[in-house]
Automatic annotation (TrEMBL):
Binds 1 zinc ion. The active site is at E46. It comes from Acidithiobacillus ferrooxidans (Thiobacillus ferrooxidans). Converts 2,5-diamino-6-(ribosylamino)-4(3h)-pyrimidinone 5'-phosphate into 5-amino-6-(ribosylamino)-2,4(1h,3h)-pyrimidinedione 5'-phosphate. The lineage of its organism: Bacteria, Pseudomonadati, Pseudomonadota, Acidithiobacillia, Acidithiobacillales. This is Riboflavin biosynthesis protein RibD. Gene3D superfamilies: Cytidine Deaminase, domain 2, Dihydrofolate Reductase, subunit A. GO terms for biological process: riboflavin biosynthetic process.
Length: 357
């Protein structure tokens, strides 16, 4: 199963909206087939492993990181393929929470006489697909907030200058995070101030480019913004009462306009996230400024915080990473668990997740 988990990681940048899955077939103590799901619409991990194993699959044990599918989706059911190949035993790390599967794959295998064991390295399998699992279980994507800050907790000088706080290694790591996301989300303030391209810049072009999402309540995005000139779809989320005048030019530039309800402080986050999940977005990488960051924190929607800390001091007048609170006692202060720390040149990347209360 450990090898299957490693194989599953081959799809981290390309399987959207499907989960990453790995499979290994073992017979008489020898690995006879390996497979990984690499792209939606392409064969699943089990089918790659069965193809490699050929006749050796009969009587073998299959180790699969996620319950084999039992429905006709973009590809035929993998449970049926395992049964047809004569696999005798299937060990799965975890069940698939997709309502179209949700135990039906296990039931189909057992009904055909295949021995099924569950829960092998389940915790490790959970970490592979946080976005897919959250979308299936809770109806919203996994939100990663990415920010770069100085040692004194600032993201820009008082005049707004922020390029670049971090070094080349940290910025290269951000490109990897972009490539792995279903979508990259920014606010209109970032578009107007920085004119970002948003598409990941990698040495080898990815199989799939993330969707570029702009939160733009009043449709102020310039039709010649740089993000229209890079690969990947562009979605602009706007208030339902936004002016009509700009819509034609933005659609002509290539944007899909998504109307949302508003609140007193902007767009309704719950509606926005539900809409993203309905559009099969698993992971959203948010690269917005302090205001949107604070809004996400207040709404309790930050699942993971990627914090790149540069060895700089920007001073008391510089812009803070975000403003939350006020809090009157330490018991109510949000606390975070450090999942990982990585040195990137002179910078440090913290991966943080909120602690359970």
């Amino acid at each position: 199963m450990a090898e299957a988990l490693v194989l599953a990681e081959l799809g981290l940048y390309s399987t959207h909206p499907n989960p990453c899955v790995g499979a290994v077939l073992v017979k008489d103590g020898f690995v006879v087939g390996r497979g990984a799901h690499l792209q939606a619409g392409k064969p699943h991990a089990e089918r790659f492993a069965l193809a490699e194993a050929g006749h050796a699959a009969r009587g073998a044990t299959a180790y699969v990181t996620l319950e084999p599918c039992s429905h006709q989706g973009r590809t035929p059911p993998c449970a049926d393929a395992l049964i047809a190949a004569g696999v005798a035993r299937v060990v799965i790390a975890m069940r698939d929470p997709n309502p179209l599967v949700a135990g039906r794959g296990v039931e189909r295998l057992r009904a055909a006489g295949v021995v099924v064991e569950e829960g092998c390295l389940a915790a490790a399998a959970e970490t592979l697909n946080p976005g897919f699992l959250q979308r299936m279980r809770h109806g919203r994507p996994w939100v990663r907030l990415k920010q770069a800050m100085s040692l004194d907790g600032r993201v820009a000088l008082a005049n707004g200058q922020s390029q670049w706080l971090t070094g080349e290694a940290a910025r290269a790591d951000v490109q990897q995070e972009r490539a792995r996301a279903s979508a990259i989300l920014v606010g209109i303030g970032t578009v107007l101030a920085d004119n970002p391209r948003l598409a990941p810049r990698l040495a080898v072009a990815p199989r799939r480019y993330p969707v570029k999402i702009v939160l733009d309540t009043h449709l102020r995005t310039p039709p010649d913004a740089a993000l229209f000139g890079t690969p990947g779809e562009v979605w602009i989320c706007h208030h339902q009462n936004a002016p009509n005048a700009a819509q034609g030019a933005l659609r002509a530039a290539g944007a899909e306009l998504l109307s949302c309800r508003g609140t007193g402080e902007g767009l309704d986050w719950q509606e926005v996230m539900t809409m993203f999940a309905q559009r099969e977005m698993n992971d959203i990488l948010v690269e917005a400024g302090p205001s949107i960051a604070a809004s996400l924190f207040t709404a309790g929607l930050v699942d993971e915080w990627l914090l790149y800390v540069a060895p700089l001091l920007l001073g008391q007048d510089a812009r803070p990473v975000l403003v939350t609170g006020p809090y009157v006692n330490l018991a109510e202060v949000p606390r975070w668990s450090v999942i990982n720390t990585t040195q990137l040149g002179d910078d440090i990347k913290w991966t943080l997740r909120p602690q359970e209360r």
